[in-house]
Design a protein that fits this description.
This protein is 84% helix and 0% strand. The protein is mainly α and 116 residues long.
Length: 116
């Protein structure tokens, strides 16, 4: 399979996993009833579309293979938290928590699916 096809599949998978997690955290855990579904979905799309290409295409030539996963995922979590903070007006702690959890879950589900 082409790298680009794998990337697009990964992007779609990431959106399907992370947007519902973002929605659940914003609406039910953080109890923010003011944010609309469209704004939450749009923000989730923006966050993934802005970070995943860097993780797949920009970062690999510059980061040692042993450290790639740690550095890459850490940067994605940090940038997505800033996006949630900026667009959804979450405080930094909440934005970081939802970004961390969404990325951990999508990473492990993706890793599990690749292995099987």
């Amino acid at each position: 399979m082409l790298l680009e096809t794998r990337f697009l599949s990964s992007l779609l998978f990431t959106l399907v996993i992370e947007i519902p997690i973002l929605f659940i955290f914003v609406k039910y855990i953080f109890k923010n009833k003011k944010l609309s579904l469209n704004k939450i979905i749009g923000t989730g799309i923006i966050a993934s579309v802005l970070t995943l290409p860097y993780l797949w295409f920009i970062l690999p030539p510059y980061v040692n293979t042993r450290n790639y996963l740690l550095i890459g995922e850490s940067l994605v979590i940090f940038v997505e938290a800033l996006i949630y903070f900026s667009i959804l007006d979450l405080n930094l702690k909440k934005a970081f928590i939802v970004s961390l959890i969404a990325n951990i879950i999508s990473f492990f589900i993706g890793f599990y699916l690749i292995k099987f």
